[in-house]
Amino acid sequence: MAEKLKDKIYEYLSNHYYLNLATVSPQGRPMAHTMAYVSEDAVVYVATNKNTRKVQNIMQNPYVAYTVDEDDPDWFEMKALQIEGKASIVTNENELREVGEIMAAKFPVAADTPPDPESIMIKIKPEVIYYLDYSVKFGYREQVNL
């Protein structure tokens, strides 16, 4: 059962483009950031400017949460992911190259964008994932711990 659920999660992540990332400031204030992402199984990657508040927050507290969801007005058709995990800055050149290729394939505009020396890649490894599918039953949610 867990493997089937993981496959549904991986597919859901690969078929969506944006996530809503939650971080916490050093002052304890929550912040939400809408970001484009790519994924490899349940691990997601986001690119951003190294001077953003989200990066500052992650440097102080690497634990983050995010959602990926539909924009459907029918509550009984809602499907979404709620994910809690740990973020880190990617520094490995091979990993950066591989993720860059995945990013360019998913977002062709990325392939035409010149490299930005101020940009960094953030990797988020999930620890717990909730898969919501209200078409099964209102409030239906399954959990996977990684």
Quick recap of the structure?
By secondary structure, the chain is α+β, with helices and mostly antiparallel strands.
Topology:
Elements: H1 2-14, E1 18-24, E2 30-36, E3 38-40, E4 43-49, H2 53-60, E5 63-69, E6 79-89, H3 93-106, H4 108-111, E7 119-133, E8 141-145
Domain Pyridoxamine 5'-phosphate oxidase N-terminal: 5-132
Keywords: Oxidoreductase
Protein name: Putative heme iron utilization protein
List keywords for this structure.
4 helices; Pnp Oxidase, Chain A; 27% helix; 8-stranded antiparallel beta sheet; single chain; 8 strands; 146 residues; globular; alpha+beta
Provide structural commentary.
By secondary structure, the protein is of the alpha+beta class. The chain has one domain (2-145): Electron Transport, Fmn-binding Protein, Chain A (Pnp Oxidase, Chain A, Roll). The chain is built from four helices and eight strands. Keywords: Oxidoreductase. Residues 5-132 form the Pyridoxamine 5'-phosphate oxidase N-terminal domain. GO terms for molecular function: coenzyme F420 binding; oxidoreductase activity, acting on the CH-CH group of donors. This is Putative heme iron utilization protein.
CATH class descriptor name: Mainly Beta
Kindly report the oligomeric state of this protein. Answer: single chain
Instruction: Give the CA-CA distance, first to last residue.
Output: 14 Å
Determine the number of helices (DSSP H or I, runs of at least 4 residues).
4
Can you tell me the CATH architecture? Roll
Organism: Methanosarcina vacuolata Z-761
Domain Pyridoxamine 5'-phosphate oxidase N-terminal: 5-132
InterPro entries: F420H2_bilvrd_red/Heme_oxyg, Pyridox_Oxase_N, Split_barrel_FMN-bd
Protein name: Putative heme iron utilization protein
